[in-house]
Every structure is written in structure tokens, then in C-alpha cells.
Write a structure and sequence with these properties.
The complex is a heterodimer of chains A (195) and B (118). Chain A has 195 residues and is an all-alpha fold. Chain A contains 8 helices and no strands. Chain B has a single domain, classed as Helix Hairpins (Orthogonal Bundle). The longest helix of chain B has 31 residues. Classes of the chains: A mainly alpha (195), B mainly alpha (118).
Chain lengths: 195, 118
């Protein structure tokens, strides 16, 4: 289990680095797939096999395909991607901020008890921990309301996506007649209510 | 050896890489992917804590303690499930906004989104 974990974590870090440095989003999406798959493997080594399956289904399945669809729909041209002229201060600021975060978290993790890390193998998880049976029982026993509220969240997200997808974001500029201003439905209905 | 600090360190490194991606890139698609990476790093930390407390790990210096009540052992994984659902919604809305912006600006680079700057 340990060798598996370290192999997966090395892959995850390497693919994450490749992901943030690729210029074309298609390649970034490919590296992201590898990174998400290795994180799913780490979930399995942490006795969260159900979460590992969900990670593959949801991230590698749904989210990544959504990214690929959008990239293919937008189809950014080569010169457009070449236009991503990053100013020098940006990678420097990113490095500084990334090192700051990493250092802060490492300090928070290791500052308490350096060298006192007790391996997980010395206090094994109870039988069935993280299995689909146990986790399903936990979801539907204790967290039913939260679980059902996820569906409300998803409905809200779908409604927002449909609204944003249909609406024209371009503001109607005065003096240009190519785009007529949207009819003022709301005012008329409010007037009708007041009348 | 596989222990709580090692997983937390991996989570910290992945989070920092994601933060670097958000700051250093100007392509909105790659920035969204980096945000996903950061969410994944946090999920990893939550799963590690869940495993830690399920085995009876203590809160401070990690000595095995009395453990959590039965039935609460995999509560931490519920956090991860919720955060994954939120991440999926976030990506859907973010990509829809991205498409709407692209129809307007014909670009996915943040340099071209300068409406508020005037």
C-alpha cells in the first residue's frame, strides 16, 4: 500500500506541474486527466474506495469531458494561444505565492511534532471503513438532508448554466442599432401590478 | 510510510501548484483547471483526516486515542462528496460563463476581459 501511495503521489505532482505549464488547453486537460486518476488511486489507498470511484466518474468522466467539449467548441487558434504573453511578474508572483502556501501548510503540518508521524498501519481503520456499504449507510442514515440538498444545488447550477448560455452578455451600446435593446418586460408587469 | 503528515504534505504541494496555475496563467480554461486541482488537494486532506480519525487517531500529536463513535467513522468522506458536487456545479457554471464571454470577446485570455478597468 505504501509503495502504491508514493507512486501515485509522485505521478500526481508531476502531472499537476505539467498541467499548469502547458500552453494549449487540450494538453493541459490531458495532464489533468492523469492527475485526477492518480488522486483517485490515492483515495483508494486511504480506504476511501467509494470516493475513488466517484472521483473517476465525476472528475475524469463528467468534468473533464465538459472541459474537452468547451475546448473543442471554442477551438482557440494557434496565434490566439500565442497571444498569451505572460508578463514576467506573473510566474514570479505565482511561484512566491505557491511557495508561501506550501511553506505555510508544511509548517502547520510538521511544526507540531516533527518526526513523530505515526504510520496509518499502526492504527488500522475499522472493517468496512469507506466501503460502499458502510458509506452508503452513513449517507442515508445521518446525512440524508445534506445529500438531498446536493440535488437542489445541481438544479440551481443547471438553471444558471441555461440562463447564462442563452443570454447575450454584450451590453447594448447607445448609438449602435445592430442590437435592439431587450424589451422591458419587468417594468410593464410591475406597472400592471401597481395599476 | 503512509501517515497523516505525508498525505497532508502531498495535499499542500498540489494546492500550491494549483495556486501557481491560477496566478501565473492568463488562459481562463487553464485557470479553471487549476482551481479544480486546488479543490482536489483539499479533498485529499479531508479524506486523510477521515482515515486518521476512523483509526482512532488523536487530535494533537497523533497518538491513537479512543476513536470516534461508530457510524461517524466515515463522516469525513461525506465532506469530500459534498465538495465534489460543488466542484462539478462550479465547473459547469464557470464554463458557461466562459462560453458567454468568448462569444462576446472572441478570446479566452484574461487580458481581454478589461471591462471593469475601463
Amino acid at each position: 500500500m505504501d509503495a502504491l501511495y508514493f507512486a501515485f503521489s509522485a505521478i500526481a505532482v508531476y502531472t499537476a506541474l505539467m498541467m499548469v505549464t502547458r500552453r494549449h488547453p487540450i494538453y493541459a486537460a490531458g495532464w489533468m486527466l492523469a492527475c485526477l486518476a492518480s488522486v483517485a488511486g490515492i483515495f483508494v489507498t486511504l480506504h476511501a474506495s467509494f470516493l475513488g470511484v466517484i472521483q473517476v466518474l465525476l472528475y475524469a468522466g463528467a468534468i473533464l469531458v465538459l472541459f474537452l467539449f468547451v475546448i473543442m467548441l471554442l477551438n482557440p487558434s494557434k496565434e490566439e494561444l500565442e497571444a498569451e504573453r505572460v508578463a514576467l511578474w506573473q510566474p514570479v508572483a505565482g511561484l512566491v505565492l505557491g511557495c508561501f502556501f506550501a511553506g505555510l501548510l508544511v509548517w502547520a503540518v510538521l511544526g507540531d511534532a516533527p518526526g513523530k508521524a505515526i504510520p496509518f498501519s499502526e492504527y488500522p481503520a475499522p472493517d468496512g471503513f469507506g466501503s460502499t456499504t458502510d458509506f452508503g449507510a452513513t449517507i442515508y442514515d445521518r446525512y440524508v438532508v445534506a445529500f438531498e440538498l446536493i440535488s437542489v444545488l445541481i438544479i440551481a447550477a443547471i438553471a444558471a448554466v441555461i440562463l447564462v448560455g442563452k443570454r447575450n452578455l454584450r451590453p447594448a451600446r447607445p448609438g449602435r442599432t445592430s442590437e435592439p435593446a431587450p424589451p422591458a418586460h419587468r417594468e410593464t408587469t410591475e406597472e400592471a401590478v401597481h395599476a | 510510510m503512509l501517515s497523516l503528515p505525508s498525505v497532508l504534505l502531498l495535499s499542500a504541494v498540489l494546492f500550491a501548484i494549483g495556486a501557481y496555475g491560477v496566478i501565473a496563467r492568463r488562459n481562463l480554461l487553464v485557470m479553471l483547471m487549476s482551481i479544480e486541482l486546488q479543490l482536489n488537494a483539499v479533498n485529499l486532506a479531508l479524506a486523510a483526516f477521515s482515515r486518521h480519525f476512523a483509526g482512532g487517531g488523536g487530535a494533537g500529536g497523533l497518538p491513537p486515542g479512543p476513536g470516534v463513535a461508530p457510524g461517524l467513522a466515515d463522516s469525513g468522506q461525506m465532506f469530500v462528496l459534498m465538495s465534489m458536487a460543488v466542484a462539478a456545479c462550479e465547473v459547469a457554471v464557470g464554463l458557461a460563463l466562459l462560453i458567454a464571454l468568448f462569444r462576446w470577446k472572441r478570446s479566452v485570455l484574461t487580458d481581454d476581459m478589461a471591462e471593469l478597468a475601463g
